[in-house]
Amino acid sequence: MNLRWRKFLVVAAALAASLFAASPAPATASASASQSASGVQSQAVDPGRPASEAYPWMARIETDYENRWCSGALISPRWVLTTASCIHWHEALDVHIGSKDLYGGGTVVQGYWELKHESFTDPRFHIGDDIALVSLAKPVSEKPIKIADSAMVGDMVRRLGAVHCSGCTGRELREVDTKLLDISRCNNIEPGEELCSTLPRDGAGFCPRESGGPLVAKVGTEWRLVGLAARYSAINGDSSVCGDISTNVPYYRAWAEDKMQKFDDAHPGG
């Protein structure tokens, strides 16, 4: 069977299962979405803690769809790496670099060009290849994050991004520490292309849902980019946590470097 058809069927089966499997009362399901003052729809998630340090490479991408935002990571002075699902239907407008305020602050620069992975089609029916580049209209001075050499089961990692929860401001960058699991623990995951980790459920049992949030690991004294939040899933054998599926950034390093180089060669000086 063609690989892309296999991916389609796997995701379609997962969607069907989610519709017909046993689930909490409808009132619980309808309450799973919360809305921040900015209009961003997001699911509640264990709040973790406010960002404990500066992350100058943290990127927040403002799109042209109903004031919707997603995240990414600055990997060179002019390039942000994010998920293809972040910008699949939405054009990147302004990109905020290095701010702990999720909806403002930092160095603000316009998104100039978007490059999605060629094999990514539709986030509703596709798993894997969920990665994209956004070029900036001008270079920024913030220090980029380097891509990790690899991502190994058992590595301790940190998820950064937006959280909408009781007691949270809804605007502050937050972090949760976790570790990488064997991919067999996450449902409907693409081997090689994706990573499996966990996030605690909040008090109501909800899971995170924000595209592009960086997953990073400490190497010496510096952070390295390991993954980008793609979606969540069930964790096999443990209903107390959420499966956090991330795009495996080291797997796509060569793709990103090739695309950036070709684009820069074709657009010297911007």
Contiguous low-pLDDT stretches (5 residues minimum) are 1-45
Please tell me the CATH architecture of the largest domain by its name. Beta Barrel
* CATH domain class name of the largest domain: Mainly Beta
Based on Cα principal axes, name the global outline.
globular
CATH fold node name of the largest domain: Thrombin, subunit H
Provide a compact summary of the structure.
The protein contains 4 helices and 16 strands.
Supply database-style keywords:
about 270 residues; alpha+beta; Thrombin, subunit H; 6-stranded antiparallel barrel; 4 helices; about 15% helix
Which SSEs are present, and which pair or pack?
Elements: H1 3-20, H2 26-30, E1 33-35, E2 41-43, E3 49-50, E4 58-63, E5 69-76, E6 79-82, H3 84-87, E7 92-97, E8 107-116, E9 132-136, E10 146-147, E11 156-161, E12 174-181, E13 194-200, E14 214-219, E15 222-233, E16 241-248, H4 253-266
Parallel strand pairs: 10-15
Antiparallel strand pairs: 1-2, 3-12, 4-5, 4-7, 5-6, 6-9, 7-8, 8-9, 11-12, 11-14, 12-13, 13-16, 14-15, 15-16
